[in-house]
Amino acid sequence: MQIPTHLAQTIVDSRAYAAGDPVDDAFRTIRAEMPLAVAEPEGMEPFWVVSRHADIMTVEKQPEVFHNGDKSTFLTLKEMEPMVRFITGGEPNLVRSLVSLDGQEHKDLRAVVFPSVTPKALRGLEDDIRKIAKAFVAEMLEKAPECDFATDVAFLYPLRVIMTVLGVPQEDEPFMLKLTQELFSSADPELNRDRKEVNPAEALDGLRRTMEDLEAYFGVMTEKFRANPTDQVNSLIANAKVNGEYLNRRQLMGYYIIAATAGHDTTSNTTAGAMWALAERPHLFEQLKADPGKVNAFVEESIRWVVPVKHFMRSATQDTEVSGQKIKAGDWMMLSYQSANRDEAVFDDPFEYRIDREPNRQIAFGYGAHVCLGQHLARMEMRILWEELFPHLKSIELAGTPQRTISNFVCGPKHVPIRFTLN
Amino acid sequence: MAETFKRYRCTFCGQEYDEAEGWPDDGIAPGTRWEDVPDDWYCPTCGAEKADFEMMEIG
After folding, report:
1. Phi, then psi, of B31 in degrees rounded to 5
2. Given A22, A234, A257, A309, which is the most exposed site by the fewest CB atoms within 10 A?
3. CA dihedral in degrees (A73, A79, A84, A85; nearest 10)?
4. pLDDT tens digits for A31-67?
């Protein structure tokens, strides 16, 4: 079955994601009428749209059958592919990171950082993260009665946390934030490399220049951590060996980049989106103040609600079936977390923000072997921020119209103007 | 007759623990019942703790 062109165009349209409702409306129709069907938007290779929660779990539970890295791991235009392969020496992804690796290489590299991000290991960081949260809360309170919660808090707090975990000096944070936004927001003239509207070739060239800056920066870091190893994550990456050899340049750079960028941008988007939701729902804030123990449920629902990673792509390694639908070897597939987190078969009132979902089966971190490595850190740092902030606030409301980043991949609110009163 | 082996699933990533198979990589022998898995064992895929696993439906 073929998805009608207007729906196929909407679910890849960065501006539709920025608007919000058009994408949700399109996926509502797709889930109801063609939950596993082919889309062929203009300029793209055709791909299956996996829109249901259950089907995404089915695909993600079979990493040998559905590979991440045989084709582009995220939506891309047909004309970009040869350019990316030219730049990378034949690979389909500009960055060779955990999200685009498969098999033993994925297992080996994931194992480098995994022991540092288990809940057990993270407990040792709770006090340090709380100190960071307190500092950002204090700064925000000084701005009373108004701030842009996205740019003043949500972008900066997760950045400080992840840079501390990685071992990046505080003075380099603005540089890392700028490059992360360039990497994930190439379609947004406010945030991309050239700070203007660009065509696909210009966008790719901007990404390439951003990559060069990141590689230069992390090249120096590798030397530093090999000379003086620490227990920080970037040092683990710099010093990791697989079969007696250091990671190669592509693996090293991919690892640094994914840890530094995905490690805060997703949490920033979720934090900003949570505040947006709260500012529009005074009853929700009252509930949280009356029962602070609901903060974990609030965090989980904010992850379901914002879905900071909108999709990942897979490609079938063999002929197979998903929910009775035949899939051919080589077929490209879009796993839409945006859609799965609104799946009526799993969530009551999926378009309502509710903190009484028990359990909350949100799937924004993915599932199976590629489940987000930093998911427990993300939950913990968001919980701590709200624990530190809420007791100070009497009321919150929007002080303007929030805006989302123009992107169809890793994105969320970029401006959340709020007005707040203090206790 | 011995009780049937059960399976448990990590609620965060879907990793399954099958009592019949144990988890030899972590020193947990095949046939180890869930209650005998050490409390400090964690999910080998995502790091979630033992308490974050749920029993799977049989059949």
Report:
1. 90, 0
2. A22
3. 100
4. 999 999 999 999 999 999 999 999 999 999 999 999 9
Give yes or no for residue A101 having a pLDDT over 80: yes
Q: What predicted TM-score, i.e. pTM, was given to this entire model?
A: 0.94
d(CA A416, CA A90): 41
Q: Listing from the earlier edge strand, what are the strands of the sheet with A66-67?
A: A36-39, A47-50, A332-336, A311-316, A66-67
Question: Which CA distances in Å does A373 have to A176, A277, A295, A370?
Answer: 20, 26, 22, 8
Q: Where are the alpha helices (DSSP H) in A147-199?
A: 149, 156-166, 173-184
A330 touches chain B (CB under 8 A): no
Q: Is the peptide bond before A359 cis (omega within 30 degrees of 0)?
A: yes
Q: Give all strands of the β-sheet with B53-55 in edge-to-edge order.
A: B16-18, B7-10, B53-55
The CA distance from A360 to the nearest CA of chain B, in Å, is 10
pLDDT for position B1: 54
pLDDT of residue A286 exceeding 80, the answer is yes
pLDDT tens-digit series, residues A345-362? 999 999 999 999 999 999
Using the Cβ of A83 and the Cβ atoms of chain B, whether some distance falls under 8 Å is answered with: no
CB contact under 8 A, B14 and A371: yes
A372 half-sphere exposure, CB direction, 13 A CA radius? 25
Q: Give the helix/strand (H/E) hosting A241.
A: strand A241-242
**Cβ–Cβ < 8 Å for A155, A405:** no
By CB atoms closer than 10 A (0-12, 13-18, 19+), residue A40 is: middle
CB A374 within 8 A of CB A255: no
Question: How many CB atoms neighbour CB A159 within 10 A?
Answer: 24
Average pLDDT, chain A: 95
- Complex ipTM value: 0.89
pLDDT more than 90, % of chain A: 84
**Rounded-to-integer distance, Cα A180 and Cα B28, Å:** 42
> Would an 8 Å CB–CB cutoff place A111 in contact with chain B?
no
Q: Write the burial class of residue A208 (CB in 10 Å: 0-12 exposed, 13-18 middle, 19+ buried).
A: middle
- A:361-380 residues touching chain B, CB 8 A cutoff: 365, 367-369, 371, 375-376
